[in-house]
Structure formats: C-alpha cells, structure tokens
C-alpha cells in the first residue's frame, strides 16, 4: 500500500517540467497574478484559516471536553492531520500553478470532480458565511448608541409594561431573535424578507466585492488590516477582561483539565473535526493562494508556521472569551445572590446590611430553622457559579447573546461593542476572501464566463448571484436554513474532498514524483514524518473521522432548535423535527459536492468511449483507470446516498 | 371630668393609629438607602421621616390643588428596621376620614420624580408597594442611528468600487494609447531581431557582440 501507484498516463504532457518552471520563474513571464511580498501571502493564509470558528467553536469544545486536557487530542491531531494536509495543498498548488479545478484536471482528467466539489462547497459556504457577516454588521451598526439597544427591553404598545416576549426571556435574546432575525417559529413559515437584513446583506457583499474586485491585487492590500486587527482587539479585550471581577474564574474553568475526557471517543472526534475545519482545507482556496507564489517558496516552513499561528490563535481567543464569560457568570451570580438577599430582607423586615454575601448561607440556615414554611414559600433561586459558567454556548449564541450581554455590563459598553464586532467582521471577511477565491478561480478555469469579460465583471457577477441566492437567509426562517447549511454543506463533503485529495496526490500523482517536486522546490526531500503522514496516517485519520461523523449524523434524529414564543418551555429553544421535504435539500447539500467526484469521472469516461471511434491501447488503459477510480470514489458517496434514502 | 379630658387628649393619637393600622387606603413604603447610596447612605431617623411626610403632603397639595394639606395629614405606622412603614393620608376637612387609595396613588405617581429626588433615591430603592413605577418614554430618534452608520459604510463601499473601476478603465485606456503610440513610432525605427528597440525598455540599447571595442589588432 505504501508504494502503490495508480496508472496515470499522459501526466507528463499536462504538467510543466522543472526546467520550464525554472524558466518561467527567471523570466517572470506568464500572466498569472503574483503576491507583492511574502507577508501578503502569509497574512492571507492566516486570515483564511483563522476565522469565526476559532473564536466561537474552539472555546466551547475546550471547555466541554475537559478544559486543559482537550489540548492533548487537539495538538496531536493538529500535528498528524492538519499540518500534513496543509503542506500537501500548499505544495501541489505551488508546483502545478493552478487553482483547484486546474490542479485536479492536470493530475488526472477523471479527478476533475474533486475540483468541482471544492467549487460547490466553497459556493455553498460563501452563501451562508456572508450572512453571518451581515448579522455582525447589523450589530456593529447598532453599537453606536448609548444605551445599547439590547441592554433593556422595549416598552409595549400601550406603555403599561415591557414587551411580553422580552420580559419572559431577556433583552439580549429578544434583540437577537426578534429585532435582528425576526425569526419565525418553524422552518416551514418563511416569514417574509426582513428589509433591514437585506440592507446589511448588501453591505456585506459590497464590502467583499470591493476587496475582491481584482483578485489578490486588492485582497492582498485588504489583508494587512483584516488579518492583523483581530489580534489587536483580542489583546485589548484580554487586558480589559483581566481587570474585571470574575475573569480569572472563567479562565480557570476553561483550562481545568479533566483527564477522564480523553477516554471519550467524542473528544477525539471533535478535536479532529475542529482541526480539519479550522484549517479551511478542501475549499480549494489554499491551493489557489499557493499557486501565486514563486516556485522555490519554502512551503514546508509556511505550513508549519501557519499551523502554529492557527493553534495559538485558538488558544488565545479561548482565553479572552472565557475571561469575559467568567465576568458575566460572576455578575449573574452576584445578581442572583443579591436578589435572594433582598427577598429575605424584605420578607423579614431586617435592616439592610444584615445579610451579606459572606454570611448568606448561615443567615439562610438560621431563618430556615425558625420559619421553614415562609422560606419554602419564597422560592429562592439556587445560585451556582459553575452552572453560570457552563452556560457558555457556542456559535452565534456565544457572539450575539452571551457576549453582548457581558458587554452591556461593562462601563463604556458602546466602545467594547464596536471593537468586538469589528473583530468578528475582520475574522469573517478574511475567511471569505479564501472562500471567494475558491469560487472565482474554478469558474475561470472551467471557462464559465467568456474570456473577454474583465476580472472586475466576473467577480461582480459572482457576488451579485451569491447575494441574491443568499436572500434565503434573510427571511424569517433564515436562521434555521443557515444552521442546516452549516451542518450539511460544510461538513461531510469537505471530508470526502480532503480524503480524495490525499489519495489523488499520493497515489494518482505519485508520491515519488511529488517528492522530486519538493526537492526541486524547497531543496530537500521531505523527511520520514511527511512520508508517513501523507501515505498512511492522515488518510486513516480522515477516514476514521468521516466514518464516525457520518454514522453519528445519519443514525441520530435530525432536528433543529427553534425560538417559539408559544412553546411551553419558552424561553428555552424548542427541538422540532424537520419536515420531510428538508431531507431532499439535505441530500442536495451534502450529496451534490460529494457525488460530483465519481459522476464527473463517469461522464468523462462515457464521453471518451462514445466520441472516439478507434479504441487504442491508451483507451483500454483509460478504461482500466476509470474503473478503479469509479470504484474508489463511488464507494463513499454512494454509501452517502443509500443511507439517506433509508431515512423516513 | 379628668378622665373625660384625658380621653379627649389621648383619643386622637389612638384613633390616628387605628386609622393607619387598620385602613385599606394605606400604602406600604420601603426604602433601600444602603443599596441606593452605598457609602453615602444617611441614617434613617425622625428628621428623615419628617421629610418624607412633608414631601407626601406636598404631593397631595399639587395633586388636589389645595393648599390646606399639612404634615399632620400624613399618618405613619408599622415602622420597621428594614426602613419600611405604612402611611395613610387624612382629609383636610375631616381628620377621621381618609383620602381614598386611588387618589393617593395618582398623587404619588405624578410626583414620584420629586419624591425620589428628595431622598436621592430611585424607583428601585424607594418603593411604594402597589404603585408600579412609571416607565420612561422610549427614546424616539428622527433617524435610527444604525441607518446613519449603514449609510456611511455603503457610501464608502460605493466610492471604493467606483474608484477601482475608474482606475482599471483609465489604465486600460493608457495602455491602449501607449500601444497606438508605439505602432506609429515603429515605422521609423530599425528593427533588430524582430523587436523594436523602444519596446525593450532599455535606454542604453542592446550590446552588440559583433562589434569589438578592442582595437589592438587594428592599430597597425
């Protein structure tokens, strides 16, 4: 299995030889865009990898899977899964000097499907990712007022009290679910388009268009700001956070190791998935960015540096987030306790200051012994700091509910709000650059647009189409659609693509040829670590994650959580099952990218066989290959399809 | 006779106490001075109570537009260490008659702001049980602040797009003019190796290997 190489005739004709590459390098000929300097390239890749997931997914995983102990599976899988895949994508892009579609078509025309799958996934992810940026912009626009609109409930129509939906939940929940999303109660009722969200979506796509209008010429300048500003803001928040009461409790809670979690397979699975998605692999964007480098760029060093920066950013962001969450939990705990103390003072008409936080327990105990029935009738809340700390949610809940609430409790709230949302905006935008690159370059390679159209028009049309399709997410049920896209379009297809990439480079392109290319590019043969991980370890890890992910997704009940003011458990979100027609959508989202890998191979094979009248030896060889490749790439996606069909 | 006189003297306060204690028209008041003022908290004593009664009398005066209310019209009882007590308001015409609850409530609501300020407290820390705090009017903006920021951002984006597109158009126009200009100059220049000298972009020209500067052998 180590030295297996699938037959791949014609490869030499499709790629540039080393001498041709050298000449291209020296003469600086060719119309391919180039990076102005190495810093631009590094900042763009760091920006693509470091995204919203580092801020709102990693801290939650860290805290829920045993704190400091989570670092162990995370770092192990980073080294054995993340870095090898990253190096592979950088190296193949730099060597073949094409975007994702071009690279796979060059390696073998039957592998064109991998490039198309990357294109589909990049497109689907761009759609919903930019909607999240639109939400961030809405909050940013609303941060320029004091008091912040999510700090208090609005008054109802006849001025007798607060709006009931807000009173039953909280001002931050109300602002998010009602005034921002205006969410409907179920995914079936569309709820109509929300005009304010349309404006925010237009501004999000507008900003993206300005930055991507001429490809890396403009994004290369934009990343100087979008990739560095988050670090500045994180540092400011760290300093602010550490001066707040309760922040150290939060950080301690985050990092307290629980080594028992290491025995739980979900921990390893989540760590692997997080490493994988965090590196934005299989989108095709990294291959594109790397192809604009000079051919002797040290991609090995780049891969290691970017991985280290990504890991460091995750840990740093987790520290900052949890210092603020610790502050919020302490505030809530103090409020809870003061509320109880006030109730006791009022009921027993004791002077103020008689019961304080320090003697609360003894006072309660003594009062309970003297008047137990009164105490039980009071319904005092139990105040537990740990339960407030574990309320740390993930995803949009963390950013738009928990963190915004914490901000309202800080002095000078509008300033912190503006800084926080600028940071989220920059994180999201720099990731979008990579996504859009993964959409635009394949479209150009596939010659979808006429050659005469200038780059500006192509990127404009793409952004316009994405904006229009993205209107799905600004209707009343948009939040549920977004969660759907996130779970299915951005998960399983990526795993399939990454697995195919590894197999494609190692076994179809040939690991020997790849090693020679690396000797040519960086001067030395990649050492035993790279050989072992590329050939065996990383594909196995990918396969394991895929199987686990797939089986857990397919076997469990698929439901979504909805904000329904009429439900019994309001304000807790209600679990609702998906309607049956959603399963078709799920199949399209996950299936189309994955199935395009074998389907393209089949389509090409049929074309080759039917159109050419005289089968030669070469034809037979092709047939043999497409048979092998078909079997190989069809197993996984067809299993995908049949298991979906089984569902009710 | 003496008993009768004594009864007459002590009856009003007794009756007053009964009026306050048993009445339905009283309101319970609770003050949380330490919570509201922290280190600047003052002691609750008779003088503070005097101030309270006088502010309530003031509130009744303003509400009923009668200048006859005095501090004796405000009766207080059930004073506790919490700093909470019950008060009732007697009518100016008849000291045994109480002002109905609704009237007192209206008077308090109208002047809550003044009463709060007299004690440096707020609606949260000076509570009248049964009288909900009046909600402040919602701030109505002429233009929502978020629309203003949105306008700024969209304006910047539009300017950026136009500027970049203009620079592309002008670059293309300049390149076209340069190409047109070059093709006019080409006719006069001797071609070398199929390319015009000027398009090589070098001012010094091309070094002609055939011409040797070394004239050692030709000096003779």
Automatic annotation (TrEMBL), chain A:
Subcellular compartments: Membrane
Residues annotated for Na(+) binding in this entry: 47, 50, 54, 278, 310, 427, 431
Keyword Cytoplasm: no
Keywords: Membrane, Metal-binding, Sodium, Symport, Transmembrane, Transmembrane helix, Transport
Gene Ontology CC terms: brush border membrane
Protein's UniProt keywords contain Transport: yes
Listed GO biological process terms: sodium ion transmembrane transport
Signal peptide: none
One Pfam family linked to the record: SNF
Membrane-spanning segments: 41-58, 70-92, 112-141, 193-211, 223-243, 275-292, 304-325, 415-436, 457-476, 488-511, 532-550, 581-606, 627-645
Membrane topology according to the record: Multi-pass membrane protein
One GO molecular-function entry: metal ion binding
Principal place of residence: membrane
Family: Belongs to the sodium:neurotransmitter symporter (SNF) (TC 2.A.22) family.
Name of this protein: Transporter
Organism: Cyprinus carpio carpio
Lineage of source species: Eukaryota, Metazoa, Chordata, Craniata, Vertebrata
Automatic annotation (TrEMBL), chain B:
Domain of life: Eukaryota
PROSITE patterns, sorted: COLLECTRIN_LIKE
GO cellular component terms, semicolon-separated: extracellular exosome; plasma membrane
InterPro entries given in the database record: Collectrin, Collectrin_dom
Position of the signal peptide: 1-16
Keyword Lipid metabolism found: no
Keyword Glycoprotein: yes
Subcellular location(s) per record: Cell membrane
Protein's membrane topology: Single-pass type I membrane protein
Pfam families: Collectrin
Transmembrane segments: 146-166
Key words, A-Z: Cell membrane, Glycoprotein, Membrane, Phosphoprotein, Signal, Transmembrane, Transmembrane helix
Biological process terms in GO annotation: positive regulation of amino acid transport
Residue ranges of every copy of the Collectrin-like domain listed in the record: 23-220
Protein name, UniProt field: Collectrin, amino acid transport regulator
Organism: Cyprinus carpio carpio
Lineage of the species this protein comes from: Eukaryota, Metazoa, Chordata, Craniata, Vertebrata
């Amino acid at each position: 299995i180590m030295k297996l190489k699938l037959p791949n005739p014609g490869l030499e004709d499709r790629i540039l030889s080393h001498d041709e590459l050298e000449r291209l390098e020296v003469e600086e000929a060719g119309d391919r865009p180039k990076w102005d300097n190495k810093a631009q390239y590094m900042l763009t890749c760091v920006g693509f990898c470091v995204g919203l997931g580092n801020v709102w997914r990693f801290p939650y995983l860290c805290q829920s899977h045993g704190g400091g102990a989570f670092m162990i599976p995370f770092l192990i899988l980073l080294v054995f899964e993340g870095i090898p895949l990253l190096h592979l994508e950088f190296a193949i892009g730099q060597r073949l000097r094409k975007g994702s579609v071009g690279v796979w078509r060059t390696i073998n025309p039957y592998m064109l499907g991998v490039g198309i799958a990357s294109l589909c996934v990049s497109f689907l992810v761009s759609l919903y990712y930019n909607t999240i940026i639109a939400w961030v912009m809405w909050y940013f626009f609303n941060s320029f007022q004091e008091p912040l609109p999510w700090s208090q409930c609005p008054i109802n129509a006849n001025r007798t009290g607060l709006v009931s939906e807000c009173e039953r939940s909280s001002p931050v929940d109300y602002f998010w679910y009602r005034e921002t999303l205006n969410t409907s109660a179920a995914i079936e009722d569309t709820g109509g388009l929300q005009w304010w969200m349309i404006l925010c979506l237009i501004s999000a796509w507008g900003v993206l268009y300005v930055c991507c209008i001429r490809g890396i010429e403009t994004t290369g300048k934009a990343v100087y700001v979008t990739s560095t500003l988050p670090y500045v803001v994180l540092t400011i928040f760290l300093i602010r956070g550490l001066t707040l009461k309760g922040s150290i409790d939060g950080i301690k809670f985050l990092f307290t190791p629980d080594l028992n979690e290491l025995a739980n397979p979900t921990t390893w699975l989540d760590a692997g998935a997080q490493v994988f998605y965090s590196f934005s692999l299989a989108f095709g964007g990294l291959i594109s960015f790397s192809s604009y480098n000079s051919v002797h760029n040290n991609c090995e060093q780049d891969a290691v540096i970017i991985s280290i920066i990504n890991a460091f950013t995750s840990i740093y962001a987790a520290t900052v987030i949890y210092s603020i969450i610790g502050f919020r939990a302490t505030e809530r705990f103090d409020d809870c306790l003061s509320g109880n103390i006030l109730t006791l003072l009022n009921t027993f008409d004791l002077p103020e200051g008689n019961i304080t936080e320090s003697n609360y327990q003894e006072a309660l105990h003594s009062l309970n012994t003297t008047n137990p029935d009164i105490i039980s009738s009071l319904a005092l809340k139990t105040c537990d700091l740990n339960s407030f700390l574990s309320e740390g949610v993930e995803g949009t809940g963390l950013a738009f509910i928990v963190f915004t609430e914490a901000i309202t409790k800080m002095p000078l709230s509008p300033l912190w709000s503006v800084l926080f949302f600028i940071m989220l905006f920059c994180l999201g935008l720099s990731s979008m650059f990579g996504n859009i690159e993964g959409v635009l370059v394949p479209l150009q390679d596939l010659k979808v647009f006429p050659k005469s159209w200038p780059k500006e028009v192509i990127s404009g049309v793409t952004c316009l189409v994405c904006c229009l399709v993205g209107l799905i997410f600004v209707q009343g049920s948009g939040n549920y659609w977004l969660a759907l896209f996130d779970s299915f379009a951005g998960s399983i297809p990526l795993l399939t693509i990454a697995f195919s990439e590894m197999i494609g480079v190692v076994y179809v392109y040939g690991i020997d040829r790849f090693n020679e290319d690396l000797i040519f590019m960086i001067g030395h043969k990649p050492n035993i670590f790279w050989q072992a991980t590329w050939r065996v370890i990383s594909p196995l890890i990918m396969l394991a994650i895929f199987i686990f992910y797939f089986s857990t997704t397919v076997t469990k009940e698929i439901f979504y959580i909805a904000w329904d003011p009429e439900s019994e458990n309001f304000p807790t979100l209600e679990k609702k099952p998906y309607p049956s027609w959603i399963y078709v959508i799920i199949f399209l989202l996950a299936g189309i990218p994955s199935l395009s890998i074998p389907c393209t191979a089949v389509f090409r094979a049929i074309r080759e066989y039917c159109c050419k009248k005289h089968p030669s030896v070469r034809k037979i060889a092709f047939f043999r290959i497409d048979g092998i490749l078909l079997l190989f790439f069809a197993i996984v996606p067809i299993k995908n399809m049949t298991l979906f069909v089984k569902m009710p | 006779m003496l008993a009768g006189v004594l009864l007459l003297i002590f009856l009003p306060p007794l009756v007053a106490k009964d009026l306050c204690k048993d009445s339905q028209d009283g309101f319970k008041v609770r003050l949380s001075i330490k919570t509201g003022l922290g280190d600047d908290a003052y002691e609750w004593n008779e003088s503070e109570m005097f101030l309270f009664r006088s502010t309530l009398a003031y509130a009744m005066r303003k509400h009923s537009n009668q200048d006859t209310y005095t501090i004796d019209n405000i009766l207080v009882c059930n004073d506790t260490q919490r700093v909470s007590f019950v008060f009732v308001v007697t009518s100016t015409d008849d000291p045994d008659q109480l002002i109905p609850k609704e009237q007192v409530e209206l008077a308090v609501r109208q002047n809550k702001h003044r009463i709060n300020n007299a004690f440096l407290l707020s609606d949260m820390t000076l509570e009248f049980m049964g009288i909900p705090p009046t909600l402040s009017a919602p701030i109505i903006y002429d233009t929502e602040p978020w629309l203003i920021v949105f306008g700024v951002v969209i304006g910047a984006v539009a300017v950026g797009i136009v500027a970049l597109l203009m620079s592309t158009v002008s670059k293309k126009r300049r390149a076209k003019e340069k190409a047109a200009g070059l093709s006019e100059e080409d006719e006069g220049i001797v071609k070398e190796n199929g390319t015009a000298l000027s398009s090589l972009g070098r001012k010094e020209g091309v070094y002609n290997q055939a011409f040797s500067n070394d004239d050692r052998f030709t000096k003779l």
